[in-house]
């Protein structure tokens, strides 16, 4: 598929980092009490949302806002999926790369 002006932006997953993977793995460990296992996915979501926000901000700086006299000649063809909401993770959709409990 070739990009053309006016084509919709591709939506892409921000890859999970080691901290997010570790927290999600720990949430499945029965060694921790239920309250801890419930809080760990929210901590992972918070890290992931921060990384998503960073990507959005980077896109704004390098392709959408004119911070200089002459803006970058960059067209942003992809953006991250929206931030995850903090809900009961047992009912939330699973991210690619994250295993089910």
Describe this structure in words.
The longest helix is centred in the middle third of the chain and has 31 residues, at 34-64. The protein is mostly helical. 41% of the residues lie in helices and 6% in strands. It has helices at residues 18-27, 34-64, and strands spanning 10-12, 78-80. The protein has one domain.
The average pLDDT score comes to 75
Instruction: Work out the number of β strands.
Output: 2
Helix segment count? Answer: 2
Helix content: 40-55%
SSE ordering: EHHE
Q: Work out the count of structural domains.
A: 1
Residue fraction in strands: 5-15%
Global structural class: mainly alpha
For the biggest sheet, the summary is: 2 strands, parallel
Task: Please give a quick description of this structure.
The protein is mostly helical.
List strands and helices in order, with pairings.
Layout: E1 10-12, H1 18-27, H2 34-64, E2 78-80
Parallel strand pairs: 1-2
Question: Keywords, please?
Answer:
101 residues; mainly alpha; two-stranded parallel sheet; 2 strands; disordered C terminus
């Amino acid at each position: 598929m070739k990009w053309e002006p006016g084509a919709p932006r591709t939506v892409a997953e921000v890859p999970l980092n080691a901290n997010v993977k570790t927290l999600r793995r720990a949430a499945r460990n029965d060694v921790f009490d239920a309250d801890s296992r419930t809080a760990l996915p929210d901590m992972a979501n918070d890290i992931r949302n921060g990384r998503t926000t960073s990507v959005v901000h980077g896109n704004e700086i390098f392709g959408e806002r004119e911070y200089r006299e002459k803006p970058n000649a960059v067209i942003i063809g992809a953006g991250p999926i929206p931030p995850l909401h903090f809900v009961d993770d047992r009912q939330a959709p699973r991210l690619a790369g994250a295993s089910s409990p």
